[in-house]
Structures are given as C-alpha cells and as structure tokens.
Amino acid sequence: MQFGASMGIWLVSGAAVSGVIFRPFGLPEWIFAVTGALALVLIGLLPLPEVWAGIASGTDVYLFLAGMMVLAEIARREGLFTYLAAFAARSARGSPTRLFTLVYLVGTLVTVFLSNDATAVVLTPAVAAIARAADVRNPIPYLLICAFVANAASFVLPISNPANLVVFGSDLPPLLEWLQRFALASVLSILATYFVLRWTQRDDLRGSTRLDIAIPVLSRGGRIAAAGVVIAALVLLVASASGRELGWPTAIAGFATLAAVLLVERSNPFAAIKAVSWDTLVLVAGLFVIVRALELSGLERLLVAALETFAAAAPDLATLGTGALAAFGTNVTNNLPLGLIAGSVVAGATVPQTVVDAILVGIDIGPNLSVTGSLATILWLTALRREGLTFGAIRFLKLGCLVMPPALLLALGAILLQPW
Predict the structure, then answer these.
(1) What is the mean pLDDT of each run of 10 residues along the chain (420 residues)?
(2) Running DSSP on this structure, what letter comes out for residue 369?
(3) Which among 25, 205, 235 has a CA at the least distance from the CA of 131?
(4) What is the spatial distance between Cα 203 and Cα 163, in angstroms, rounded to a whole number?
C-alpha cells in the first residue's frame, strides 16, 4: 500500500476513534465507528471484501457480548443485583467500611463471571439504590467501586472482559493455563485497587449506616436468573478449560436463561430484548473494520517489528515497558480498539509470553486512569447520570493517578516474576 493511502487510513481511523472516545455533540459511540468505516470505503481506502472480512473476524466477540448483555439484563430486570446489594448492605451491620468491602466483593464477583460491562451497567443503579436506603454519608465511594473493580478484576477469567477475547483471538489460552498466567496478577490488582480506593475515600466512610435495610424477596424469575448466571459461568469455565471459543456458549446461556424466565413469568420478551444495548455490537463491528484497515495500511508490520526488536534486546524491560505503554495507551485510544490492534500485533510477533501477558494486563487495568479508558467506564458514567449524580473527568483522573499505578506495577511484577 502506498504511503499516501496509509496516511489516509491512519487519519480517518484516528478521527473515528477520537469520536468514539469524546462523543462530540453527545452522539452515540457507534455512529463514529460506523462513519469511520464507511468513510474508508467511500474514499477508496478499503475494498468492500475487506470490510466483510473485518466484520466477520469479530463473530465470536459479538456472540459473547450478546449473551452477556442478555444475561445481565434479565438478572437486572428480575432484581438479582438489587437483592445482592441489599444483602451486602444488611450484612454491613451499620459499618460504612464493611459496606464498602462487601460492595467491592459483589462487584468483583459480577465482573469475574459476567464481565466488566455488566458491573458498570447493572450493578451501578443497584448500588445507588442501596446507598440511598442505607442512608450513607456519600454514595460516591460505593459507586466508584463499580467503575474501578470493573477494570481491576477484568482478567481473572477470559470471560471477565471482552478485551481479553480480542487480544488473544483464536489463541485464547485454556482456562487452567489462563489461571496459571494471570491468577496472581489478578489478585494483586484487585487487592491494590481495593486498599488504595478505600484509603482515598476514608473521610466518607465514617459514621454509621442504617441497620433496618429491607432485603427484597427474590422472585421466581430472579431465582431462575441466578441459576442461569451460575450455569452460564460453569458452561463458560468448561468451554474455556477445553480451549473452545466462548461466543456460542455465552449466547446460548444468555438466551436460554431469558427464555426460561419469560416462560415461567409468561411475560413479553420484547421488553427485555429491547432494553439490551444492541448498538454496542454495531460499535464493535465498526471498530473491527477500522482495525482491518490499519492492518492493511502496514501499521501492524511496523508495530510487530518494533515489538520484536524491543523484546529481543531487553525481554524484562519489554515486559514492563509494553505493559505500561498499553495501560496509558488505553486512555488515549480506549481499550477496545487498542485491544483489537494489540491482538493483531501479538498474533504476528514472535515475543516472550510475558510480553503478551503484560500487554493484556495493561489493556485491562489501564482504563482505571481516566474516564476515556474503557467502554465499561463510559457506561458507568452514563448509569451515574441516570441516578442524578456526576463525577467529572478531571476528578476521575486525579483519583485514577492514585489508584491505577500501584495495581499496574504489582500486576506487571507478577507477570515478570512468574516461574513458568
């Protein structure tokens, strides 16, 4: 490809990704991704067959996202997350610090088994409701958990973050291998984020909360949704352990749970289906097309060559450096498009396993620095606004500068020092 065409692809792609991050005029993110993909075709920078190839390459991710979003939505509608949050609030026994810890634990479990986007979208309103019911001094510390743990715990399992699927693609490690490579790093990330976040919010975690918090009765639909979540997690763990793709099992588990709840309650399926953010799939498809164009532009070859040279000259430094670069890069490009690019690069590069693992850790933890870092954080801000609350970008950045670096350094250290 000629240099002029490559420059055109980089400019159009950069403009599209910037639109996704900053959302000029408040337009939805998917509009900018799709517009960028269409512009590449109309200008003649990307042949139509390559568009279809780019879209098709994301099939497993679309299925995974669809299944997770349906599962999370039906659990939300049936009050499962409100029940869990209320149970945590009652168990806190009047202690704000204990409530903070229990909400963090619930957020970790939701992230691990339902993905970080589910934590941001469905747990945030539940935590806001319980914070009001518990009459806490300030609901913000508890709501911040939904943003930060969504990224800090997002590489415990392959299913914990869609970015994990796009980074590894068809080379996704089986579950046992995944746990060997990321278990210690995940634990350190979760604990470091918890302690630093709790320390920064210590002034609002004083006093006491209400003791007479009512725990709602979980309906039959809620119990079925809970069972569906457990079964889906088990199915995905088995699929991951056997090295199979996760898209179809996730989609089947999500829609089977939805069907079971609707049959028991004899309710209209369209309300639940309509509530799912299907435009997220359009956004991801547009980004896959843009990444395909970047691959054809020669950017992938340049990045592969640079990564291989760096890794060959200084493997340990490359592990730390690429992980840190990926972490801070997510806040410039958002972690999903960066994950797509990183997936193409690591698939084409011959580098030590620790370098690949460090890139994933950076892409997952890095978004805790700023509100532009991940789709989960952007969704969290939207959920926060629906509750009549705000948390500004500068304020988030100041907090992120304290919370993200310790978790990143500890996780990268675990990756670097792993014995296998």
Answers:
(1) 76 84 80 91 90 88 84 82 80 90 92 85 83 87 95 92 84 88 96 97 89 81 87 81 80 89 77 79 87 81 88 90 92 80 85 93 94 82 81 90 97 85
(2) S
(3) 205
(4) 34
238 token code pair = 């088995």
User: Does residue 233 contact residue 200 with C-beta atoms inside 8 Å?
Assistant: no
Whether the CB-CB separation of 97 and 194 falls below 8 Å is answered with no
CB 218 within 8 A of CB 79: yes
- Cα–Cα distance, 161 to 119 (Å, whole number): 11
Q: Is 380 helix (H, G, I), strand (E, B) or coil?
A: helix
How far, in Å, CA of 191 to CA of 183, rounded? Answer: 12
Q: Which two tokens stand for residue 287?
A: 């980004």
Q: Which amino acid is at 303?
A: L
| Whole-structure pTM value | 0.83
Grouping H, G, I as helix, E, B as strand and the rest as coil, residue 137 is: coil
- Beta strand extents in 233-347 (DSSP E only): none
Q: What is the DSSP string of 147-189?
A: HHHHHHTTTSSGGG-HHHHHHHGGGPPPHHHHHHHHHHHHHHH
Tell me which DSSP letter residue 246 carries: S
User: Is 224 within 8 Å of 79 (Cβ atoms)?
Assistant: no
Amino acid letter for position 162: P
CA dist list (Å): 194 to 19, 101, 155, 202, 211: 32, 8, 16, 12, 24
Which tokens belong to 120? Answer: 């941001």
Q: At what angle do helices 279-296 and 29-42 cross, to 10 degrees?
A: 40
State the Cα–Cα distance between residues 168 and 361, nearest whole angstrom.
12
Q: What amino acid is encoded at 139 in this protein?
A: P
Distance of CA 17 to the CA centre of its chain: 17
